[in-house]
Each structure stands twice: as C-alpha cells, then as structure tokens.
Design brief:
- The chain is mainly alpha-helical and about 190 residues long.
- The protein contains eight helices and six strands, in the order αβββααβαββαααα.
- A two-stranded parallel ribbon has the order 1-4. A two-stranded antiparallel ribbon has the order 2-3. A two-stranded antiparallel sheet has the order 5-6.
- β2 and β3 form a beta hairpin.
- α2 packs across α4 and α3 crosses α4.
- The longest helix has 21 residues.
Length: about 190
C-alpha cells in the first residue's frame, strides 16, 4: 500500500520489454527497480485466447503453450490466469466446451465469439503482433551460440586477468581487442 501511495504501485500497461516472466507476469525493463507488470491489460488476454480458439479448438494447456511459442518462450501465462479467463469466455457465450478425449475440455468459438473477434479485429491483430515481436526479439537476443561466445570471452578474460599481475601494455591490448570486436559487431 505504501509503495502504491509513493507512486511505485504495480503498473498496468503493455509491459513489453526484453525480460522474461511466467505466471501471468512479464519483466519490464523500464528502469523501475525491477518492478513487474502484467503482460496484458484488462481484457487483452481474453481477446488473445478468443483468437487462438478461433484458429482451432484448444484446451487450456494448449493455449498456454501456444502463447509461450508466440513469445519465443519469454512469457507463459499461468493456469491461474488462463482457466478463469476461459470460464469467463464460456459464461459470456463466446466459447463452448466440446467433448474431448480424456479429462481436458476442448474449447471452440461460438457465433458470439466470432462477432467479438470481428468487432475487435484491429486490437487482436495488434496483440498478436506484439506477442510475435517479443518472440522475434527473444530470438535475436537469446541465441545460444551468442551466449556461448560471450561466456567464452568472459572466461578467457577472467583467466587472463584474474590472479596474475598483468602489465599495462597487455591490458591495453586486451581493451583494444574488445573495443575492435565491439566496433565490428556494430557495423554488421
């Protein structure tokens, strides 16, 4: 409560940055001391789920997995967020549970759901584009080979610099090599 009164309360907004989150939260890089924001504003998750169900009938776990795929693994909503939203969509008559093999409920879109999709087409397109952008950003910045190379550089530097007295000329050569690599990468 005190935090909210100081202006540091939980923010609501698009909350899209390069961070990672699970359980209905997404890390925001907004320089706010690491506070977390919701991935979706009010009603946005409902629209995303409706769109995914319109694409093909799905069960809750499949929806979680599909959102995680769209974001390249950067975000996976928790069951505690997905299932109440599915219940809401069902109560609103926008989706309906179908018979499925096993205990999982398979949801399909209804005529009311299609009408909602049509009415919110622009918003839904923007939401799906945002999720895809997160996935693309994650793909660009989370390449395993890049992480391996950075780790290798770090380890070599720690081994070379740690525990030994290194002369100033060698230190300048190391700095020059790192600066040169950074400049070459920047020019790519």
């Amino acid at each position: 409560m005190r935090r909210a009164m100081r202006g540091g309360g939980r923010g609501f907004g698009h909350g899209f940055g390069s961070g990672h989150g699970r359980g209905g939260r997404f890390r925001d890089d907004g320089g706010d001391g690491g506070r977390r924001r919701r991935m979706f504003d009010s009603g946005e998750l409902r629209l995303v789920l409706l769109k995914l169900i319109a694409d093909e009938p799905r069960h809750g776990y499949d929806l979680i997995r599909r959102i995680e795929e769209l974001t390249g693994g950067a975000y996976a909503p928790s069951p505690g967020v997905i299932y109440p939203t599915l219940t809401l969509l069902d109560d609103m008559g926008q989706i309906a549970a179908q018979q499925a093999a096993g205990a999982k409920k398979l949801f399909a879109i209804t005529a009311d759901g299609r009408a909602e999709l049509d009415a919110q087409a622009d918003a839904i397109e923007a939401l799906v584009a945002r999720l895809a952008a997160i996935g693309e950003e994650r793909q660009r910045t989370d390449s395993a080979s890049v992480r391996r190379a950075m780790g290798n550089l770090r380890q070599v530097l720690m081994n070379r610099l740690g525990g030994r007295d290194i002369d100033e000329a060698t230190l300048h050569q190391l700095v020059a090599l790192i600066d040169e690599a950074a400049q070459k990468i920047e020019r790519l």
